[in-house]
Structure formats: C-alpha cells, structure tokens
Write a structure and sequence with these properties.
Blueprint lengths: L1 H7 L9 E14 L18 E14 L4 E7 L4 H15 L6 E5 L7 H7 L2 H8 L2 E5 L9 H12 L8 H17 L10 H7 L10
Parallel strand pairs: 1-4, 4-5
Antiparallel strand pairs: 1-2, 2-3
Length: about 210
C-alpha cells in the first residue's frame, strides 16, 4: 500500500508517466420489446424483460496527473487480451515515454507470462522492459485510481442496456473523447501519513 501511495506522490513527468490500469466485465443486454420514447410529461418506458447477449470486457488505462484515459472493449479478458492492451499503452498511447509506471491489481493475467503467450520472446521482452509494474495489495484494489475511472464510465455511459460490442465501443469512445477533452482529473488525497492513522490496525504492533 505504501509503495502505491509513494508512486502517487511523484510529480508529473511525460517521460516517466504514472498510469493506472483496471478492467471490468459488462453484460450485453438486448431489449425484447421496443421502448416507448420520452414525451412531454412522460419518461421513456422500458419493459422489464430483456435478453442476455453475453459479456464484454472493458480495459481502462488512466493517467491521473494529466487527466487522460484510454478504453478498450474486448470480447474476452484472457492473458493475450491483456498483453495486447499493454502493447497499446507502450507503443500507441505512450510511445515517447522512457519508462511507464503501471499501477494495477494482482489478477492472474497481469503477469510477464502473458506477454510471452501473446508475442515472440524478443517482442515480449521489449514490451516488458518499457514498464515498471506496481501492484496493489490483496483486498486493496481501492488504491487503484483506474477503478474510480471505471466507476465513472459505468455511471455516465454504460448504466443502461447495450446489446452488442459495436454499440458499446462507439459509446465508450465518445465518453473517452468527452472526458479527455475536459482533462478531468482525480484529486487523490490519501497519503501514507493518513494510512498510518486510519488503517493503524493493519500495521504490526511493535513492543519496545
């Protein structure tokens, strides 16, 4: 926890950006009856019945100090899908960076082996060397600022029925563009000093 909080104290440096990464499933749901459109004095009416159309996965990378985020919608969340998302961070969105600090949780797919399953060894090593990986502790995913961004995405964009991957990709891209244009940032206040007071029960007790 304290390592993550130290990373968040670093000043902005475009050569050494701090990126937070997270992912979340999203159920694809299709209407079984056409909704009744909104009209004066009446909200849109949606039937309670729906049809499940599978589950999509949403990868999100957020750069809190710059107010930028990048979202990628995939059909699955395998090691290969994660590896391809990491390659995009390194080669497309932060190609000019010397070293990228990536904060993420300890999910089983978030390992070096994922890159070697997705790419030839030389390419996997090249991508791996672009990063400094910082893992949040077990049961400490709340320390990942990308989780906050995902909650904003779900609340502002995906809190409704979306039936297929194509529509979801268009909606997420529009949200990403809008939020990036606003340079919306997270005002992170929690520090190691706060943790040692508010989470004192988590620290060992030392008796002199």
């Amino acid at each position: 926890m304290e390592q993550v909080l130290d990373v968040y104290k670093r000043p902005y440096n475009d050569r050494f950006p701090v990126i937070c990464m997270d992912e979340s499933p999203k159920q694809l749901i299709k209407e079984t009856r056409t909704p009744v459109p909104m009209k004066p004095g009446q909200e849109t009416r949606v039937d309670f019945e729906y049809e499940r159309c599978g589950v999509a996965n949403i990868f999100l990378a957020s750069e809190p100090l710059k107010g930028k985020r990048y979202v990628n919608v995939t059909e699955r969340k395998t090691k290969v899908d994660w590896a391809e998302f990491i390659r995009k961070i390194a080669d497309e969105w932060y190609s000019d960076a010397e070293k990228i600090t990536l904060v993420m949780d300890n999910l089983a797919t978030h390992k070096a082996s994922a890159l070697y399953e997705a790419f030839p060894p030389k390419e996997a090593k090249r991508i791996w060397d672009r990063f400094e990986f910082v893992y949040t502790p077990k049961h400490g995913s709340w320390l990942n600022m990308a989780e906050i961004e995902l909650n904003v995405l779900m609340g502002q964009c995906l809190k409704r029925r979306i039936s297929n991957l194509g529509i979801m990709e268009k909606e997420v891209t529009a949200w990403q563009t809008h939020r990036n244009n606003k340079t919306a940032k997270i005002n992170w206040q929690f520090t190691n000093a706060d943790a040692r007071i508010k989470l004192a029960r988590l620290y060992p007790t030392i008796i002199d």
